[in-house]
Specification:
This is non-specific serine/threonine protein kinase. InterPro entries: Kinase-like_dom_sf, Prot_kinase_dom, Protein_kinase_ATP_BS, Ser/Thr_kinase_AS. The protein is an alpha+beta fold. It is about 30% helix and about 25% strand. It has seven helices and 13 strands. A hairpin with a 5-residue loop joins β9 and β10 (about 180). α5 (about 140-160) runs antiparallel to α7. The longest helix is centred in the middle third of the chain and has 20 residues, at about 140-160. It is globular and about 80 Å long.
Length: about 240
């Protein structure tokens, strides 16, 4: 036993080799860090028709954030692209709720013709989670928990006169602690506070989640019911 242990120890020691300090090669390559204001740019999280989403780090608080990056030229090629982004910024600035994505900051780089929307960081979305499940659906208890959070967020939006118009799993994000966040307000609509009802005349949401009255081409639609219908389809 003693001889075998010595042999093993000897083999282990032979793995390491002594190197003099003058033989050590150091890589002095400098990695350039991209900063947007006080935020350190990170890895790519996703990419859509409007732009890219990257991870960010607040250099002061060390909080993780997400940034939506828009190129003005690209927005100009998309029907209502600039209008939708401006609308999203305006709405998010006035909204604050546990189940609605929070807008932290906005930066505009006129030289590069880019706009940066600094948002709350989420670890993923319901659509990605559904795609990774065997039957493309959650257990009842899990779906129930997410649906209750969706209704809480939707109730708040409607109390503020906001019609989302594009509720679907792809626009529902999750934080690290499992909090659901309603996101993507590009096609949302803010009702006139002097109107006596929730009638809307346009809807640009995803066809699969749209209410029958939209598919039938009705000229006037109940905005609140549109969101409720798409929430039911999502469930």
């Amino acid at each position: 036993m003693g001889d075998k242990d010595d042999e093993v120890d000897g083999d282990m020691i032979s793995i390491f080799h002594r190197v003099d300090s003058d033989q050590v090669i150091y890589d002095n390559k400098t990695i350039k860090v991209k900063m947007i204001g006080k935020y350190v740019m990170g890895d790519l999280l996703g990419e859509g028709s409007y732009g890219k989403v990257k991870e960010m780090l607040d250099s002061e608080t060390l909080c993780r954030r997400a940034v939506k990056i828009f190129k003005k030229k690209k927005l100009q090629r998309i029907p209502n692209g600039e209008i939708n982004v401006d609308r999203e910024i305006r709405l998010l600035k006035m909204l604050q709720h546990r189940n609605v994505i929070g807008l932290v900051d906005v930066f505009v780089n006129d030289k590069k013709q880019k706009m940066y929307l600094i948002m709350e960081y989420c670890v993923g979305g319901l659509q990605d989670m559904l795609d990774s499940t065997p039957y493309k659906k959650f257990p009842i208890w899990q779906a129930h928990g997410y649906f209750l959070q969706l209704l809480d967020g939707l109730e708040y939006l409607h109390s503020q006169g906001i019609i989302h118009k594009d509720i679907k799993p792809g626009n529902l994000l999750l934080t690290l602690d499992g909090t659901l966040k309603i996101s993507d307000f590009g096609v949302a609509e803010s009702l006139d506070m002097f109107l006596h009802d929730d009638t809307i005349t346009t809807s640009q949401g995803s066809p699969v989640f749209q209410a029958p009255e939209i598919a039938n081409g009705l000229p006037e639609i109940s905005g609140y019911k549109v969101d409720i219908w798409s929430s039911g389809v999502t469930l």
